[in-house]
Amino acid sequence: MSIASFSKTVLHGYFRSSCSWRVRIAFALKGIEYDQAPVNLIKDGGQQFTEQYKKINPMQQVPAVEIDGITLSQSLAAIQYIDETRPGPRLLPADPVKRAQVRMISDLIASGIQPLQNVYVLQKVGAEKIQWAQHFIERGFQALEPMLKQTAGKYCVGDEISMADICLVPQVYNAQRYKVDVDQYPTIKRLNQTLLEIDAFQVTHPSRQPDTPVDMRT
Ligand code: GSH
């Protein structure tokens, strides 16, 4: 066994960051233990902008994962690495059609919605930030709803939990945070409710993390 195998797994994240939550869910589904190193995206003008953190993730965003002697930023790359190197339930299905559908849904959220409503972008937008966030989340959900109607069984793609589910739940959390009416999207709403009953989604919830402020804990 290499030295890297003995190194500690560390997640640099923020309780309310949807991309950090994605990685927490993947760790929980696979039963992987890890340490959390909180990076407060708001305090001190944003701890992601410190020189120290820039060495960990030059993009100055969370999450970043230290695992097996390497550091991975980009939540989907980290999730896929975890999936490919750890036992436990597959996060990407073996079937090529289902795997493509999982990637399609994950990319729609990770490239087509979340980047347009992340903190950095909203700060640049200024006064219109809430309307801006709502617009792009709704635009994405209008595309996601008919797509999920085609692919979903119990979960986003068929009846197995996948990376698509890992992306969906934190994005719905963001939608609710920006007061998007999720009732307009019955498939998204149903999937979110089903997934939130699962332990791996509950223990990793933003309201239950080491850096969750006391008044936001449940
Ligand atoms: N594509 C990246 C990923 O999936 O990891 C996006 C990372 C990202 O946007 N992270 C947000 C962040 O760090 C939190 S969810 N925002 C703070 C900022 O941009 O200053």
UniProtKB/TrEMBL annotation:
One of its GO terms (biological process) is L-tyrosine catabolic process. Keywords: Cytoplasm, Isomerase, Phenylalanine catabolism, Transferase, Tyrosine catabolism. Pfam families: GST_C, GST_N. Its EC number is 2.5.1.18, 5.2.1.2. Its main location: cytoplasm. Residues 95-214 form the GST C-terminal domain. Pathway: Amino-acid degradation; L-phenylalanine degradation; acetoacetate and fumarate from L-phenylalanine: step 5/6. One of its GO terms (cellular component) is mitochondrion. SUPFAM superfamilies: GST C-terminal domain-like, Thioredoxin-like. GO terms for molecular function: glutathione transferase activity; maleylacetoacetate isomerase activity. This is Maleylacetoacetate isomerase. It comes from Anabas testudineus (Climbing perch). The gene is GSTZ1.
